[in-house]
Amino acid sequence: MIDVAVALSVSDGRRRFELDVRFASQAPVVALYGPSGAGKSLTLQAMAGLLRPAAGHVRVGGKTWFDAAAGVDVPAQARGVGYLFQHYALFPHLSVRENVAFGLTTWRRRLSAADAARVDELLESFGLAALAHSRPCTLSGGQQQRVALARALACKPQVLLLDEPFAALNPMLRQQLREELAAVRARWGIPAVMITHDVEDVLALANVAYLVEGGRAVRAVDLDQAESRELAASALQPAPSRPPRPQQARLRTLLSTRDAA
Ligand SMILES: Nc1ncnc2c1ncn2[C@@H]1O[C@H](COP(=O)(O)OP(=O)(O)OP(=O)(O)O)[C@@H](O)[C@H]1O
């Protein structure tokens, strides 16, 4: 169960943005979908403990990571989050294998045999074994993305937080990597929250999608109950100026929760 209710305000002195996002889902893959600047990345950062909300809570898999009322605020490094950043953020001076193993090592400890086996399994799963000793700058975009995914999974996270995981890839690679991610995520049984602008990502990977607009989750779409990809895609269009269509009545049934809260 992923249960998020975060309220916070960010300001750089001239601009101010109010975030008040709530959603709760048992789904293995939750998508946060919506226009640029809607508050999706801030939500993920608050889940990861990189931003401290003024109010609300973050609960994942029965554990409370943050609860403003109860004074709970588990440090980011203790939350068990596998975070995939938009631009991968690989360490350029480390090899592929060292990047994947990064979260499992400390400056004085070598990898345990079990951790080393896990790293090797991830390298194998993502087709990276032959590149294990290469540096990130010598890899293609798709290969770099696989390294970032493997690194996010290496520390056995409670949840994967994926910020636009496929945005930098060409359409063919996107499709391939969606399939790889879906397979590996399911095999390791780790729930994920994914930010995306791309309806295809939602349709390929998510069980439920929350449309985020203006700092709020304004609508939930249960994709497991979607009657068709077309209907699900229609349901995810932002509200303004959507022309009335014959499917509208059927679409309403897709919107299992009109207000995501
Ligand atoms: N430190 C900050 N100070 C002021 N405004 C901020 C700060 N951080 C983020 N914002 C603003 O908050 C809003 C939400 O940002 P956020 O990064 O969550 O959007 P997003 O939905 O992830 O967008 P995108 O899809 O483009 O990545 C944006 O308008 C952004 O400019």
UniProtKB/TrEMBL annotation:
Transmembrane segments: none annotated. It comes from the Bacteria. SMART domains: AAA. Residues 233-261 are annotated as: Disordered. One of its GO terms (molecular function) is ATP binding. Residues 2-239 form the ABC transporter domain. Keywords: ATP-binding, Cell membrane, Membrane, Nucleotide-binding. This is ATP-binding cassette domain-containing protein. It comes from Azohydromonas lata.
